[in-house]
Amino acid sequence: MKAIDLYSGIGGWALGLRIAGVDVVASYEWWESAAKTEEQNLGKKVNQVDIRELELSTLPKDIDVVVGSPPCTQFSYSNRGGSGDVADGLKDIAKFLEVIDYLKPKFWAMENVPRVAKILQNELTDEGALARFIHLRPDMHIEIFDMSEFGLPQRRKRCIAGHFPINLLNSYKELCGKKTLGEVISGLENDEVTDVNYCSSIKRKDVFDHIKEQFFDFEEERINRESKTHHPVYNDMAFPDPWDKSVRTITATCTRVSRESIVIEDVAQPDCFRRPTVRERSLLQGFPVTYQFFGKSYSEKL
User: Fold this and answer.
1) 32-42 helix and 12-19 helix, angle to the nearest 10 degrees
2) I need a surface site. Which of 92, 112, 145, 215 has the fewest CB within 10 A?
3) What is the mean pLDDT of residues 67-72?
4) Is residue 77 left, alpha or beta, with left meaning phi > 0 and alpha meaning psi from -120 to 50?
5) Residue 46 host element (H or E)
C-alpha cells in the first residue's frame, strides 16, 4: 500500500506506517527542524511547504492511505485556556479534507486534540464551516482514544477522525500490554539500554539526547510539590509522577516549575528530582531509542 503524510512533524505517522509495511511515498511539513529530523531518520525527502497553499495537482496518484496531524495550537485547551483562533485552525482541517476529497484514498486518518471531535461534529453539518465536506461524514469515524490502551507508556487522549476499520483498531487493545513510566526510565539506566516499546536494546554509549538536567533545588522542589499536591482550585496530583503507571500527557510547555510538568525521581540518586530528558520523553511518546532529533538547540529538541 502507498501513503502520504500531511503535517508530518518529525515522522511519527511515517514511522508507524513503515513498520506496518506501508510505503510512505511523500511527507509534507513546513518546520525545517522537524522535516530534517524525519529525513535523517527515515531516509526520504520531506516536502517543506505551507500545506495550506499546496496544489492538489502536485500530489502523488493512486494513494491508498492518507494520514496527518494538522496543527492543534488553536484547538488546545493549553493555549490560552482554549481561547485559540478556531476559525484559523479549521483552515488546516479543511485543507486536509480537501486532499481526501481529491485523492479518494481507501483509508484515511486525521489526528488532533480531543476537543476537535466536538468541533468536527458541529462543523460537518449543513450550516457548519466544513459543510462542503459533509458527504464524507457517513463513512467517517470520529473517536477519542487513550493511547495508553494501545501499549504506549503515556496517557495521551487524541481524536482520530477518518475512514478506517475501527473494530479492528479497537481489537488491538486486548493485545497491547500496559507499560509504565518506571519501565521506561529504569530501562535507560543499564549499560545495555532497553527500549520497552520495541523489545530491543543498544549499548548505553550509543544513546543520544539522554543528558540529565540539574536536579531541582530546594525552592524548585517546594513549588513543584505544592502546586501538584495542594492546589487551591484543581485536583491534587502526585509528586513525583508515579513509576507504576503510564505517565501523564507530555506537553511542550514542560518547564522546570509548573503544575503540568512531569517530575521524576532519579534512579541513581533517590530523593533527587528532575524533568525527563529528551530521550526519556521520546520513549514515553513511542519513538524508538535510536530515533535522533535534529533541533538547533536543546529547547528546540524538547
Assistant:
1) 20
2) 215
3) 91
4) alpha
5) strand 46-47
| Cα dihedral 249, 250, 251, 253 sign | positive
| CA 161/CA 145 separation, integer angstroms | 10
Q: What is the pTM of this model?
A: 0.91
Rounded mean pLDDT, 7-29: 97
CB atoms within 10 A of CB 281: 21
> 179 and 197 in contact (C-beta within 8 Å)?
yes
- Amino acid letter for position 231: H
Name the packing angle between helices 86-103 and 115-123 (round to 10°).
70
Tell me the average pLDDT across 97-126.
Answer: 96
Grid cell in block for residue 2: 502507498
Which of 259, 112, 241 is closest to 184 using CA atoms? Answer: 241
Please check whether residue 163 is in contact with residue 141, taking contact to mean a CB–CB distance below 8 angstroms: yes
Q: In what order do the strands lie in the sheet with 141-146?
A: 46-47, 23-28, 2-6, 65-68, 107-112, 157-163, 141-146
First to last CA, the chain: 33
Measured from the Cβ of residue 207, the count of other Cβ atoms closer than 10 Å reads 15
Q: Helix, strand, or coil here: 123?
A: helix
> Sign of torsion, CA 76 78 79 80?
positive
Distance between CA 126 and CA 218 in Å, rounded?
A: 57
What does the pLDDT average to over 133-160? 96
